[in-house]
Amino acid sequence: MKPFVQIATRPEGDVALTERASVLAFSGLREENLIWARLDRDPFPDLHAGDISGIILCGSPFTVSDPSEVKSAAEKRAEAEIFRVLDRVIAEDIPFLGACYGIGTLGVHQGARIDRTFGEPLGAVEVTLTHDGREDPLVREAELSDTFTGLVGHKEAVHTLPEHATALATGATAPVQMFRVGTRQYATQFHPELDIASIIERARVYRDHGYFSPDEMEDIFTALQSRTADEPPRLLRAFAQLFAD
């Protein structure tokens, strides 16, 4: 099998490592079958469509819709690399699955309007498949329910999709929770690479990044621990199974 690539843009080494472990666990891929590309510090590897099965882009503390002057050098570097990768993803029809930061970057690349209108604080939300979502091959492979619980925490979101994009899932606060462009390029607003325990662990690291009020953190965690969000991680395994080359 040709390897997949996991793109990471988290400068915090411990968070990057736990994210890596989650992607491996939920996708079912082995270490040797998942190249790790740390774009916050390194260029994307010299790989082409014929070398890999697909690309997974995880979340990030970066925010694509922020003005350039407030972005760090690492954020600007990672963003430029991601857009260069997305040029090739679209041109060469490389399977792609982006989560959270992935929906912002793929969205901007494809002409979506991304802004802070539909941001959601850390929590568990109801996600509902659209008609197109229920018929989508990846969603069907993952056996997602028509309505399921997704884990979110984001400052920006899709405001408007371009006409050529297909909305696959929606939510009460963020109207675009998942979309597809082409036939094999996907993005989700919710986190398929996280479960309840891992999103709580990550939130502790990012408690002062504006995703929630730090004063309410423990109450948010208590509420999360009463929820179940076991369906979204199926997307990672389905992506790996559907597009393994």
From TrEMBL:
Its EC number is 6.3.5.2. The keyword Glycoprotein does not apply. GO terms for molecular function: GMP synthase (glutamine-hydrolyzing) activity. InterPro entries: ChyE-like, Class_I_gatase-like, GATASE. The keyword Ligase applies. Gene3D superfamilies: 3.40.50.880. Transmembrane segments: none annotated. Keywords: Ligase. Pfam families: GATase. Residues 49-194 form the Glutamine amidotransferase domain. This is GMP synthase (Glutamine-hydrolyzing). It comes from Brachybacterium sacelli. The lineage of its organism: Bacteria, Bacillati, Actinomycetota, Actinomycetes, Micrococcales.
